[in-house]
Amino acid sequence: MADIQAQIQDTNHKRFLQHLEKSASAVWFVAMWFWGKGYTVTMPFITMASGHEQWRDHADNGDLEVLIGNERKRVEVKHLGVCFTGREDWPFPDFIVCAKHSFDNAQPKPDYYIVLSNDKEAMGIVDTSYASEWTTSRRTDSRYKGIDQDFYVCRPDRVIWRKANE
Question: Architecture of domain 2-163 in CATH?
Answer without folding.
Answer: 3-Layer(aba) Sandwich (3.40)
